Amino acid sequence: MFGFDGMSVPIVGAPMAGGTSTPELTAAVSAAGGLGMYGAAYLTGDRLAAVIAEIRALTDAPFGINLFVPEKTEFDAAAFADYRARLLPLADRLGVDLPQTVEYSDDHFDEKIDALIDARVDVASFTFGCPSPTIVERLHRAGIAVSGTVTDVAEARLARDAGVDSVCAQGYSAGGHRATFSIAGEDPRIDTADLTARIRDAVDLPVIAAGGVRSRDDVRTLLAAGAQAVQVGTLLLRCPEAGTRRAHRDALVDPRFVETITTRAYSGRLARGLVNTFISEHSDAAPAIYPQVNTLTGGIRRAAADDPEVINLWAGAGFRAAQAIPAADVVASLAP
Ligand SMILES: Cc1cc2nc3c(=O)[nH]c(=O)nc-3n(C[C@H](O)[C@H](O)[C@H](O)COP(=O)(O)O)c2cc1C
Question: Are residues 138 and 45 in the same domain?
Answer without folding.
Answer: yes
